[in-house]
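User: I'm writing a tutorial on reading structure tokens. Could you give me a worked example: one chain, its sequence, then its tokens, then a sentence or two explaining what the tokens reveal?
Assistant: Sure. Here is the example chain.
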Amino acid sequence: MYPKSLKSIHKLGQKATEKRISSAWWSKRILFDARPADHLWFLSTDFPPGEVWDAYRAYNEFLSMQLADAGLDRQSARVRDCANRLFFAQLLNPETGERGLKLVRASFCHYRHCFICQWRRSLRAKAILMSALPEVLRKYPNTRFAVLTLTVRNCPIADLRQTILSMNRGWQRLIQRKDWPAQGWIRGVEVTVGEDGTAHPHFHALLMLPSSYFSGAGYVSTKKWVQLWKEAMRLDYDPYCDIRVIKPRLASPSSCDGRETHLDAVFGAVSEVAEHVTKTEIFEGVSGAVGYSAKAEYLFHCEPDWLREYVRQVHALKFLTSGGVLKGIFKDVREGEDKDVLRVGGKASVEDWLAYCWQPKLRRYARKRDAG
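And here are its predicted structure tokens:
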């Protein structure tokens, strides 16, 4: 779950600072927030996961600038001011005596393309699914999981919304077929950008498959998936499709039987899927998907006109859906994210809180050192 390269993110932040240092609001924020590092305690030093907060907040700095260049000033301000201050409670583990930090208060923008808010929604979605998995596997002990990818040809960015809506209708026709094999599914949308500036929307879905799927007439080959998707979308060409079965990974030698349990294997598969709910391509090992807006490199390097149109095209579209025995599992992802993600797992008074402020020049969260 940690970014692949914090060094590259800091370089990106440096580029952002050089680009905007002359702007009034940016200069004021640097002069106000930047203090000598020896006067500060860094969140990443106090709390190792703080590196992730630093990374996403650095990405938000640059995204805010891109949105401003696209003329989306209101959205730019929301992203710029997201999570400027984080309040953590100091919690003591009574068994080990170790001190830990738990986020208890922060102000988030809840903007669809904000990297911090996307990341938090991803954590919320995975937590919901993981809590439901044991009961699902108890009812369906022999189920297997697979990641299905369905695509169509690239479309002009101005046609992106209609293309995604058309794909949604095609998906409904697909799952209503008598030969639809999945007991349950989670499906999301990914959008990438072609070299010619066209948009490439496609689906990634996690399928719950019965054990009988892999033997007998119920098996659907990749070639058959191409035909099924072509018919569902009513296309005059063969679209690219791919399906990959999730296999248990080898466990550590210390495990009792040398292999992961079924639940552990599914946890890994779902992590791959749920990260795509809001994926920004700085997670390690991401391959499956469940809908996010667009990869970070596209939002950072696209032309302002493309970004402005992209934001307009995907506005209010639902990128994460589920069905079958998993139907409705994510219905409260956004509504309950603050309550659940900020819940404190222990007792702590307000006096135990630590306040970390974002330092734009240093591109890190930090708090002021105590006197003495």
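What the tokens reveal: DSSP finds twelve helices and ten strands in the chain. The chain has two domains: 6-110+343-368, 117-324.
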